[in-house]
UniProtKB/TrEMBL annotation:
GO BP, sorted A to Z: sulfur compound metabolic process
EC numbers, comma separated: 2.7.7.4
UniProt source species: Allochromatium humboldtianum
An example molecular function term from Gene Ontology annotations: sulfate adenylyltransferase (ATP) activity
NCBIfam families, per the entry: CysN, PRK05124.1
Record-annotated Tr-type G domain positions: 12-228
Keywords recorded for this protein, A-Z: ATP-binding, GTP-binding, Nucleotide-binding, Nucleotidyltransferase, Transferase
SUPFAM superfamilies listed in its UniProt record: EF-Tu/eEF-1alpha/eIF2-gamma C-terminal domain, P-loop containing nucleoside triphosphate hydrolases, Translation proteins
Database matches in Pfam families: GTP-eEF1A_C, GTP_EFTU
Top-level taxonomy: Bacteria, Pseudomonadati, Pseudomonadota, Gammaproteobacteria, Chromatiales
Stated name of the protein: sulfate adenylyltransferase
Enzyme class, UniProt record, top EC level: transferase
PROSITE patterns: G_TR_1, G_TR_2
Amino acid sequence: MSSPHEFPAIDHGLLRFLTCGSVDDGKSTLIGRLLYDTKAILADTLHAIAATSQRKGLSELDLSLLTDGLQAEREQGITIDVAYRYFSTGTRKYIIADAPGHEQYTRNMVTAASTAHLAIILVDARRGVQTQTRRHSYLAHLVGLPHLVVAVNKMDLVDYDQAVFERIRAEYLDFAARLGIEDVRFIPLSALHGDNVVERGERLDWYEGPTLLELLETTPAAHTERPESFRFPVQYVRRPRDAANPDLHDYRGYMGRVESGEIAVGDPIMVLPSGRSSRVRDIQIGGVSQSSAMHEQSVTLLLEDELDISRGDLLVRPDEAPPTVRELEAHVCWLTETPLSPARTYVLRHTTREVRARVKRIDYRLDLNRLEQESADRLDMNDIARVSLTLAQPICPDPYALNRATGAFILIDESTNDTVGAGMIVEASASPSP
């Protein structure tokens, strides 16, 4: 008889997902359980975990050691940095990000969520929905994660009581409705004992929904749930030359990654911000011609016309062009100890384009504990606020809600070259720069 986590040999695509929630809700243990039960742990790693667990006097494997990799994390029993792990099943590949639960590491959670497609928000069945549960749910919603899974963990410590699960579910749904969170699923589980993670187990027989792995296996892949506009930021202009055959390889190719949408040979193309047009003459991957390219493929595009194109330009379809703007309204997460100052100029990096930017005003700062807006004249580390930015040169963004690649940016300190802020564009305006 096949086990319940065996699926047909169909590739459902890569899924990047995030685990988050309050401290000690069991995020690292859940990831360890997923890796252990899907047999994704190497023998030497498993032996090291068993030896460490024995030294700690534990009767079972401490699966959290798989992700709590920093020495400080092991000593303090907390997650500080974002830990990434990779595994695959018969149907898809996964990249897991284990985000810290402490409030002071909010910036790490935002960083992890920026590339994820699904968030697993853990709730301790004994404690229910906590302040950090609400914080992380709000942040996941803010950065545009399309799918949320609320995993009510440690059900073994409440005797697998269905009433406890239903009470937490009702409390979370009430909170989610006020934030506008729509796609949320609930799963009761025990990461320590493996109930409802990969195998269903026998102690949650009242739950008739999918296990966590079954849900992950069937979540739609990124870029597949709605039509997307073609966006191709130019990273590098390639001019290969062959001295023996100068006519064979003498061309101008534009290298980069297709961030969204698709393109095919013969399709019309527009270069932004210049607005000049051409058509695609060839698409190459590793020097081999292709008839088309799609999202997340790194390719070289050759055009029919010789145009002035350089790093930082954006190639789009003429009928899908975003506006060329000099002012932005965005949510910004401040990442550094030096406060944001409206008096300073920063470098704004949007896709592969860099421009100088200043904060015109701070509209409000988000109080993530009370989920309310408050006035502010500066931002400290881990603060999230809505700000207005003015740019010295134009960029061509999309709203973050429509395109996470071209709707995001980072702010860089000109003097130190440190990344100091991460932004998500809400609105863009073609107003002239000051």
